[in-house]
Amino acid sequence: MKLRIGALVVLGGFLLFGAGIHRTEAQPKPADLAKAKRALGELQDFIGVWNLEGLQKDGGKTVAWKETIAWGWKFKGDEAWITVKFADGKGKYYTHGDLKYNVPTKKYELTLTNSAKAEEKFVGDFKVGTLKLESTNAKTGDVTRLQLETLANGVRMQLKVEKQEGGKGPFEDAFTMAGNKDGESIAGVAKKKECIVTGGAASIAVTYKGETYYVCCSGCADAFKENPEKFVKK
């Protein structure tokens, strides 16, 4: 009888301990969520649909291909991050991914799913208009470096990918992609409309109570439709 009571006490202790852990799980602070959103806002020029051409050296010849790449905002409560989709999920090297900002480390983190359906996590910084991220293969030690930037006042995008074998020696070019934002041209000088959700350049029209507003991506369109009064009042 004493053994049974003791066992129940121990079991109850574990249950209470587990419940305590569950209750004390750290949730993102509102201030940190705001900081992350501001940091991601620095990449607003990336938002939109891009018609890019890829180039890669293959022996003595150059291989070329085209992909439409879409960058957009995603919102869940007060949390915000940026999504990217390559060629409607059928990109040559990557299919889709999520870009977030880690407030404690002050680093941008891009998790991409490659064509083999495996995830690759890239970490880095955004400085002088350029996002530089690196990912290390845990098995081989190979390092992949991504460098993204926009040019011509946000009309043109360039992506450069480099590889370093075994984490040693120089980086070598893997492939590049470059092109213009859908519907834009370098010659265009018209003043850009502002996204009512993020404040960035916008081209997608949405309406509310007979008024027309503009958003920069489908994620912002969804956020506006869910609670238009929130953004109209701002």
Number of strands: 14
Question: Roughly how much helix do the residues carry, as a percent range?
Answer: 10-25%
Overall geometric form: globular
Computed Rg: 23 Å
Looking across the biggest beta sheet, what order are the strands in?
Answer: 1-2-3-4-5-6-7-8-9-10
Give average pLDDT, whole number. Answer: 88
For the largest beta-sheet, the strand count, sense and barrel status come to: 10 strands, antiparallel, barrel
Assign the structural class, choosing from mainly alpha, mainly beta, alpha/beta, alpha+beta, or little secondary structure: alpha+beta
User: What string, H for helix and E for strand, traces the elements in order?
Assistant: HHEEEEEEEEEEEEEEHH
Distance from first to last alpha carbon? 67 Å
Please indicate the percent range of residues in DSSP E strands (runs of 2 or more): over 45%
Low-confidence stretches: 7-11, 13-23
Discrete helix count? 4
Written account of the structure:
This protein has 234 residues and is an alpha+beta fold. It has four helices and 14 strands. It is globular.
Secondary structure elements and pairings:
Blueprint: H1 2-23, H2 30-41, E1 48-58, E2 61-76, E3 79-86, E4 94-102, E5 107-114, E6 119-127, E7 130-136, E8 143-151, E9 156-164, E10 172-181, E11 193-194, E12 201-202, E13 204-208, E14 211-215, H3 218-226, H4 228-233
Question: Which short descriptors sum up this protein?
Answer:
single chain; 234 residues; alpha+beta; ten-stranded antiparallel barrel; 4 helices
